[in-house]
Amino acid sequence: MPDQSPPSPTPELFSWEFAANPYPAYAWLREHAPVHRTKLPSGVEAWLVTRYADARQTLADNRLSKNPAHHDEPSHAKGKTGIPGERQADLMTHLLNIDPPDHTRLRRLVSKAFTPRRVAEFAPRVQELTDGLIDRFTAGGSGTADLIHDFAFPLPIYAICDLLGVPREDQDDFRDWAGMMIRHGGGPRGGVARSVKKMRGYLAELIHRKREALPAEPAPGEDLISGLIRASDHGEHLTENEAAAMAFILLFAGFETTVNLIGNGTYALLTHPEERERLQRALAAGDHGLLETGVEELLRYDGPVELATWRFATEPVVIGGQRVGTGDPVLVVLAAADRDPERFDGPDTLDLARRDNQHLGYGHGIHYCLGAPLARLEGQTALATLLTRLPDLRLAADTAELRWRGGLIMRGLRTLPVEFSPPPTGQG
């Protein structure tokens, strides 16, 4: 095979400077090394897929398994390819780690909670949560807030807890555990694994309590954990461990993506004032069409998931002309694919009215994000309400001072300091 090594210098990946703006490095990889083998910060070696056409094909290729058992991993890499702590907490049997037919069975069970009708029924609760959080951080009259801590983070946590059926009095515990889980190394050593273990223990207890109290017939809008229990008790063969793992991954995958959608989306709007004003004018006129296309564009332009979750080749596979060996890990770089000039006109330009926008922000194929309708609802509600209630919202820090969270899969800000004119008394 001829030498396919790229011209030097290969840009440095996964540094703090890279995290602040990875897009120039991804543009280099798309052009010079579209399927690039690299050593990750964990020490694991993996292939990065960066072009849109290759990414879309890879996401739908059934020769690439989601099951970590297919990873031909050396001893030093053991357990470094998933969510920290999920192995120790016996939470591996969830949708991000399994293939058909088990994936098909479990996805069918939980998909009922995310139908357009069910999500539409949940819209008033999302609006209530959104308004309540804005009321809270504007109440003091200071005119300042950290939109990550005060708004983008708690909104999806409380929403997914409501959907799962976590009692209100327990939801602050979930908020604490989730906060530790998204610090990605910013908290105490081993803190993520401990939080995962605590969450696992709580979910097992909650499933047991709900099973004991489950009514004979489901009530309208029954919570998701009760629905999973009902399925497992009526021949769908869902074990208690699978139910706990399912609840865990819905929380884990369903909240950090939305934290980042709201945070990254607000940041993009605040740093593109013409597009932000365009959206505010449309909202003021009662036109929500630009909000819908705008959220899709924010997902494409600087989305919440930088790399799709792990895949492992079950046999030799050729991706973009590059041979990938059996057992090799493959990571599709969604952030690179979604700015591929071969697929998107003006890919580095934020255009809220972009129409031809089949971005990969929620994946593609059988692992397409199950919670995408809920995330879209939360993103649209959060951004529309922020821009309407706080029309002069603005950054309260220089963009160079902002820091992005570490971590391989997700892309999100640690903080987002903002200023605004306090609303008149009685209006939040």
Biggest sheet strand line-up: 1-2-8-5-3
N- and C-termini, Cα separation: 66 Å
The amount of beta strand, in percent, is 5-15%
The arrangement of helices and strands along the chain is HHEEHEHHEHHHHHHHHEEEEHHEE
Number of helices: 15
What's the count of strands?
Answer: 10
- Classify the helix fraction into a percent range: 40-55%
Overall, the morphology is: globular
Polypeptide structure, described:
It is a single chain. By secondary structure, this protein is of the alpha+beta class. Helix content is 46%, strand content 8%. The chain contains 15 helices and ten strands. Strands 1-2-8-5-3 form a five-stranded mixed beta sheet. A three-stranded antiparallel beta sheet has the order 4-10-9. Helix 7 crosses helix 8, helix 8 packs antiparallel against helix 9 and helix 9 crosses helix 11. The longest helix is centred in the middle third of the chain and has 31 residues.
Summary, kept brief:
The protein is of the alpha+beta class and 428 residues long. The chain is 46% helix and 8% strand.
Question: How do the strands and helices of this protein lay out in sequence?
Answer:
Blueprint: H1 16-20, H2 23-32, E1 35-39, E2 45-49, H3 52-59, E3 64-65, H4 102-111, H5 116-138, E4 144-146, H6 147-152, H7 154-164, H8 171-181, H9 191-213, H10 224-232, H11 240-270, H12 273-284, H13 289-302, E5 311-313, E6 317-319, E7 322-324, E8 329-332, H14 334-337, H15 372-389, E9 394-395, E10 417-419
Parallel strand pairs: 2-8
Antiparallel strand pairs: 1-2, 3-5, 4-10, 5-8, 6-7, 9-10
Helix pairs in contact: 5-7, 5-15, 7-8, 7-11, 8-9, 9-11, 11-13, 11-15, 13-15
